[in-house]
Write a structure and sequence with these properties.
With about 220 residues, this protein is an alpha/beta fold. Helix content is about 25%, strand content about 25%. The chain has a single domain (about 5-210), classed as TIM Barrel, CATH 3.20.20.70. It has a nine-stranded mixed beta sheet. Bound molecules: iron/sulfur cluster.
Length: about 220
């Protein structure tokens, strides 16, 4: 069976999706094809930040936790071809599986039974324009789109993108501020004033609980 380059496996609270608040096991894969300005997991960027691990051993590590919600994250998990096989194995074993991806690679590579959290990069990330537009065709109501916003300019850009592509008709959408550059209140006020329908305000719940540290 296949191997994956694994940076870390840990249990925490699901922090950002519509399942925020539920206990979740995270499998962080090594390697990323982007370098976002506000990235908080830069320790996973390089391929050598991980250890080549058999899928059976990954599942064995996951099984040590009494938790049935799993998120495959990174880095960028879709860079590794065996990610789809890991998702399938977990689904077969009755796990609820999520994957967090930066949207630059084909999300159709993994089953649509996996909840695909697609982080579309705004200009403030320094990686604007990296989203693979073809991915819009794969979205189902099981998936989620997330925009991480460094400024109100990013929010304006993201809202325009949502309107142009009718994203809220396809799946749930979350606007999440970079807390160091866009205060929660400023974004929340702006969303209320602009009467946003169908777009959630999101926070990084795990950071509110534990602060900036690895493995949560
Ligand atoms: S895509 Fe994710 S892991 Fe990669 S640089 Fe951006 S925030 Fe960091």
């Amino acid at each position: 069976m296949s191997k994956l380059n694994v940076c870390e496996i840990f249990a925490s609270i699901q922090g950002e999706s519509t399942l925020a608040g539920y206990p979740c096991v995270f499998v962080r894969l090594a390697g990323c094809n982007l370098r976002c300005a506000w990235c908080d997991t830069s320790y996973s960027h390089d391929d050598n930040s991980g250890v080549s691990t058999h899928i059976n051993d990954i599942i064995g590590e996951i099984a040590k936790f009494p938790i049935k919600l799993i998120e495959i994250t990174g880095g960028e998990p879709l860079l590794q071809p065996s990610t789809a096989a890991l998702c399938d194995e977990l689904l077969c074993r009755g796990y609820q599986v999520m994957i967090e991806t930066n949207g630059t690679l084909d999300i159709g590579a993994v089953s649509n039974k996996v909840r695909r959290i697609v982080d579309i990069k705004c200009p403030g990330s320094g990686c604007g324009g990296s989203f693979l537009i073809h991915n819009l065709k794969h979205l189902t109501s099981n998936d989620e789109i997330k925009f991480v916003l460094a400024s109100i300019d990013d929010a304006v850009w993201a809202k325009k993108f949502c309107d142009e592509h009718r994203i809220t008709k396809k799946c749930s959408v979350t606007f999440s501020p970079v807390s160091s550059s866009l205060p929660y209140e400023k974004l929340a006020d702006w969303m209320v004033e602009n009467r946003f329908d169908g777009i959630r305000f999101g926070v990084q719940l795990h950071k509110i609980i534990w602060g900036e540290r690895r493995g949560v």
